[in-house]
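Hello Y.,

Per our agreement to keep a running log of every chain we model this quarter, I'm adding this entry. I've kept the format consistent with earlier entries: sequence first, then predicted structure.
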Amino acid sequence: MSSFKDRSYRCLIYSALGNDDYFKVTQRLKSKAVPYRTKVIIDSSHPGGGSIQSGAQDYLQYDIYVQKKDEYRANNAIHHYDKIR
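Predicted structure for the entry above:
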């Protein structure tokens, strides 16, 4: 997971809920060599009270950003993955 310091990554391409969804989407982006950045949002209303502990990962939201120039490729990698294979 990359740090979210580079402002050139401004295009929100996907919001993944939980670890399984996050890893599925980022694997698709990696397989098509699409660079991305991730911002993690913790929902403090769920068990765990805003801390990351065992089992709380299912309540994490991962906002995945790409550069505007990679938006089309990222969408294809995420949403048309099965059709490409």
